[in-house]
């Protein structure tokens, strides 16, 4: 099959520089639970998600979409996003629609905010305002490629900061939000007990990256001891991860792009659908 080789971004665009780092998947819980702090997002995910039953498939769909949009060809990004939009058409219920631009803006905002926060912590690098403006502008794609009109997004980075601060300080989470958090932070994985140390680290990262007003609503314990352990964990990651070979750090991208391309090629050769993308795949859109 012939591919359109032009992507939506270039290799030196910040959205690619940040998103290529496989470690960002560890921050996916924070982005996901920020998304479902929004009551309408939470209810849609609670009513339609397969997160609890198959967390690994949720991760597969989520990361496949993210990497296709950022690193795939234009054709791959648009075709996968069309599948997501189609899947979201059925994700409706009292007071919510998955394709609602308001919800798409919030999801894109969380993906940008968490990625920028975690990248700067791990690489011990503070982005300039100009870099944050560039990265934010590129991250709008997470909403616009799903059909959100660009003028529904905060136009500039300063406007984004005001929007994000308002949302973080006014969102009221629901019982659905809390139920999803339990599923995300305590998934049923094939590794069983062997996964417990890794999951404990993910839970600590998730709580540490979560804005305090929302963390408090989730009811997560956060004191000086937890703060200290969070900072030690991040310091350990910052000391080791950036020194790994680039080919190791980008292995998740290569894997998920490979599986995404295989799926899209199979779909193109077939007259029948081979994938139904359902909500709950951090297309809430996202880890």
Automatic annotation (TrEMBL):
Residues 16-238 form the ER-bound oxygenase mpaB/mpaB'/Rubber oxygenase catalytic domain. GO terms for molecular function: oxidoreductase activity. This is ER-bound oxygenase mpaB/mpaB'/Rubber oxygenase catalytic domain-containing protein.
């Amino acid at each position: 099959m012939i591919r359109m080789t032009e992507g939506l971004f270039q290799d030196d665009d910040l959205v690619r520089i940040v998103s290529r780092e496989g470690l960002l998947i560890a921050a996916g819980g924070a982005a996901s639970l920020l998304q479902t702090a929004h009551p309408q997002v939470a209810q849609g995910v609670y009513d339609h998600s397969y997160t609890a039953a198959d967390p690994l498939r949720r991760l597969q769909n989520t990361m496949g979409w993210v990497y296709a949009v950022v690193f795939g060809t234009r054709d791959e990004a648009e075709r996968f996003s069309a599948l997501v939009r189609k899947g979201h058409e059925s994700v409706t219920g009292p007071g919510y629609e998955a394709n609602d631009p308001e919800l798409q803006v919030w999801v894109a905002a969380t993906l940008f905010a968490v990625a920028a926060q975690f990248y700067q912590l791990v690489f011990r690098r503070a982005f300039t305002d100009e870099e944050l403006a560039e990265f934010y502008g590129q991250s709008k794609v997470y909403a616009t490629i799903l059909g959100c009109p660009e003028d529904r997004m905060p136009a500039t980075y300063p406007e984004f900061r005001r929007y994000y601060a308002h949302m973080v300080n006014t969102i009221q989470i629901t019982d659905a939000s809390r139920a999803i958090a339990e599923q995300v932070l305590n998934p049923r994985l094939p590794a069983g007990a062997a996964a417990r140390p890794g999951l404990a680290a993910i839970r600590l990262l998730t709580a540490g990256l979560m804005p305090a007003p929302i963390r408090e609503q989730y009811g997560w314990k956060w004191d000086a001891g937890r703060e200290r352990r969070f900072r030690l964990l991040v310091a350990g990651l910052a000391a080791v991860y950036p020194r790994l070979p680039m080919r190791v750090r980008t292995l998740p991208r290569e894997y998920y792009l490979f599986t995404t391309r295989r799926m899209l090629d199979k779909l193109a050769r077939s007259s029948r659908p081979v994938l139904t993308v359902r909500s709950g795949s951090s297309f809430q859109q996202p880890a």
